[in-house]
Structure formats: C-alpha cells, structure tokens
C-alpha cells in the first residue's frame, strides 16, 4: 500500500513496523505532503542504511510513496495548466490547475475514463479503464502544486470519471486532503451525474468517515425534463429525474448542505428560455444554486456552444424565477478545455 494517503499516525506505525522510532513517521509526513517528495531516497533526514534497505524492498512496479509520472503538460494563455499523468500500471489521466488571483482550483479525475457515456463528454467516448485509488487522486493535487509552484486552495471532482462510482476512494481522498494537506471540506466540490442509490450511501459514508459532509455536492442536471435528459445522458434512463431530485432533497435534509446543479448549455438543444422556465419550476422550493456551463466543443461532438446572448437569456429567465444562478467562465479554451480532451488527442496521435 502506498504511503501517500496515510495520516501521521499510520506513518508512525509504518515506521515502527520497519523497526524505526516513531518520529520517522512524522518526518515521512512532512516530506511526502509538505515537501512533495517523490521517492524515499530524496528524504535526506532518514538514515542512509534504512533508505538503502527500502530501495531494495521497493514494491514491484512502483515505489513506496505512490506518485504518478508526468507525461505531458499543456498551458493555456489564461494560465490554466493541464497535466497528463501516468499511473504505476501505465494508464493516463488528466488533471487541471485553474488559477485566479485568490484561488488555485485543482480539477481532479476520480476514474481513468468513465462508463457514463454522456453524449457531450470527451471522456465518456472512451469507456472506463478503472477507478483511481486515493493516492492517485491525491497525487494530482501534489502534481499541480509542484508544476504551478503554488498551493491549491480548492479541489473539484470534475475531471475524468464519475465520483459516485468510487465513493470510498473519494472520501478517503477528502479525508487526507483535510488532515494531511490542510484543505478543508468547504473548499471541495464533488460533481456527479447521478448513480441510482448512491446519494444516500454518500451521505451515510461521509458522516461515518469524515464526521460530517461539508463538501459541496454538485449534480449535473443538463435538462429540465426526463425525455431530454435521457437523450443526453443514457444512464439517466435507470435513474429518473424525479428520483434524482428526491434523493437530492433527502441529501440536503441529512447533511444540512445545499446542493448545486450544473447545467451544460448546448446550442439549440437545451438552451431555450422556455427550458429555463421549466427548470425553475422543477427546482421550486429547493435551496439550490444553478451553475450554467456553456458547452466546450469536443472533437467529433454533435453539439455547439450557444452564443453569449443566448446564455444570458437563459440566465435571466432563471433569475426572473428567483433561481440563484451563475455562469461558469470557460477556462483554458485554447488548450482542450473539456475534460478528457487532452488525453483523447494524445492517445489518438
Ligand atoms: N461525472 C461527473 C463529474 C465529471 S464531469 C459529472 O458528470 O458531474 C464535470 C462536469 O463537466 C459535468 O457537469 C459534465 O457534464 C461537464 N462536461 C462534460 N463534458 C463537457 C463539455 N464538453 N463541455 C462542458 N461541460 C462538460
């Protein structure tokens, strides 16, 4: 088991099991999380004899810490940095650092590929390879910190994959982000397109594992009615919009946290002001926030991005019905902004 993801107590126990005094565990913690060490050989405060022994006993195919390798980086004019990383077993995944003056948000992947196959999503075109383990998600945050020489302030699970198909690893990651990297739950957003029966489990497991669920839950809605939602999101057939919204209401009741809704805007498909009105009707009485995401065109995509006027009209229609709404600024458009695009382009090449 990789050391990345272990807390101070677990690292102390690991050091002791190796016949070392427990303070070595605290040194490991400082170097792995504080200084971003990629290998134990870098940790100069550890005794040379121990490091040599560990180098000989290294787990097959990998190292002790469990960092990924950088395969490629791509920097957009607006400062958004996208990294293509390789896992120990040679799979590639994307992670993105999105800077503003006050924030550095890391958009992490929770799976390699994704089985949900949403029609507008580049990742969904390739199917699922496998779910990521906690160290492979934490590595993305450390890799962005290292590449951008800045401490991430926020983490969003909006990269490749469906986090609710990997709940245990996602919660272990959130746990470690707080405990080991000082990134509180309030700075973390988990985005899901909806998986039957998963929201009650998420709430229950978050309360059990983290003591509370204070991260933001964002739900990808994308349509005001079941028929259109099914067309865009094939998996929605097994999880009707009414059931999804009912689960969201229960999630709010159990966790005391608001849910936010994401709505991708596809020109001529779901961006009519009347659709905004229907959406507002669906969300009536719901303490929620709607985040509009103008579609980022992908290769062989069948959709188009609506004009700024059209986006504005949709936003106004929601506002008139007193729905709290914001439009997500598109970042990194010159560098394959949509999730999964960089990987698709590079693996096709
Ligand atoms: N599986 C999760 C999280 C990953 S995607 C989910 O679906 O929520 C994060 C967000 O990006 C989702 O709202 C997704 O619908 C959206 N997205 C995917 N492809 C996009 C594209 N080409 N343009 C704009 N948003 C996109």
Helices and strands in order:
Layout: H1 8-17, H2 23-34, H3 48-56, E1 69-75, E2 81-86, E3 92-99, E4 104-107, E5 111-113, E6 128-131, H4 134-148, E7 154-157, H5 167-181, E8 188-192, H6 198-210, E9 216-220, H7 226-232, H8 241-255, E10 259-265, H9 273-282, E11 288-294, H10 308-320, E12 324-327, H11 341-348
Parallel strand pairs: 4-7, 7-8, 8-9, 9-10, 10-11, 11-12
Antiparallel strand pairs: 1-2, 2-3, 3-4, 5-6
The structure holds S-adenosyl-L-homocysteine.
Structure explained in plain terms:
With 349 residues, the protein is of the alpha/beta class. 36% of the residues lie in helices and 18% in strands. It contains eleven helices and twelve strands. Strand 7, helix 5 (167-181) and strand 8 form a beta-alpha-beta unit. The protein binds S-adenosyl-L-homocysteine (SAH). Residues 116, 118, 120-121, 158, 162, 191-193, 220, 262, 264, 293, 295-296, 298, 338-339 line the site of S-adenosyl-L-homocysteine. Residues 116, 118, 120-121, 158, 162, 191-193, 220, 262, 264, 293, 295-296, 298, 338-339 line the site of S-adenosyl-L-homocysteine (SAH).
């Amino acid at each position: 088991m990789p050391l990345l993801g272990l807390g101070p107590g677990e690292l102390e126990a690991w050091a002791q099991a190796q016949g070392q005094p427990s303070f070595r565990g605290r040194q490991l913690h400082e170097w792995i999380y504080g200084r971003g060490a990629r290998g134990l050989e870098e940790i100069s405060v550890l005794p040379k004899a121990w490091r040599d022994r560990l180098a000989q006993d290294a787990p097959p195919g990998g190292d002790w810490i469990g960092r990924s390798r950088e395969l490629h980086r791509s920097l957009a004019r607006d400062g958004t940095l996208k990294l293509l990383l390789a896992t120990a077993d040679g799979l590639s995944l994307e992670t993105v650092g999105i800077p503003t003056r006050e924030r550095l948000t890391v958009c992490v992947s929770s799976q390699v590929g994704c089985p949900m196959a949403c029609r507008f999503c580049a990742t969904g075109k390739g199917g699922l390879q496998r779910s990521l383990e906690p160290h492979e998600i934490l590595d993305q945050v450390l890799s962005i910190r290292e590449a951008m020489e800045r401490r991430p302030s926020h983490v969003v699970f909006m990269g490749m994959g469906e986090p609710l198909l990997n709940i245990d690893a996602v919660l272990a990651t959130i746990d470690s982000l707080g405990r080991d990297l000082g990134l509180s739950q309030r700075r973390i957003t988990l985005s899901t397109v909806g998986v039957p029966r998963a929201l009650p489990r998420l709430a229950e497991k978050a309360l059990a594992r983290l003591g509370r669920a204070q991260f933001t839950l964002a739900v990808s809605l994308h349509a005001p009615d079941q028929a259109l939602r099914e067309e865009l999101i094939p998996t929605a057939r097994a999880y009707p919009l009414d059931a999804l919204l009912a689960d969201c209401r229960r999630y709010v009741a159990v966790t005391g946290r608001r849910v936010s809704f994401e709505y991708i805007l596809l020109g001529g498909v779901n961006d009519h002001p009347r659709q905004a009105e229907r959406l507002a009707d669906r969300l009536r009485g719901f303490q929620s926030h709607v985040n509009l995401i103008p579609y980022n065109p992908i290769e062989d995509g069948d959709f188009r991005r609506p004009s700024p006027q059209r986006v504005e009209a949709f936003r106004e229609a929601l506002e008139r019905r007193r729905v709290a709404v914001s439009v997500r600024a598109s970042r990194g458009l010159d560098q394959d902004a949509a999730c999964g695009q960089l990987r698709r382009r590079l693996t096709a090449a």
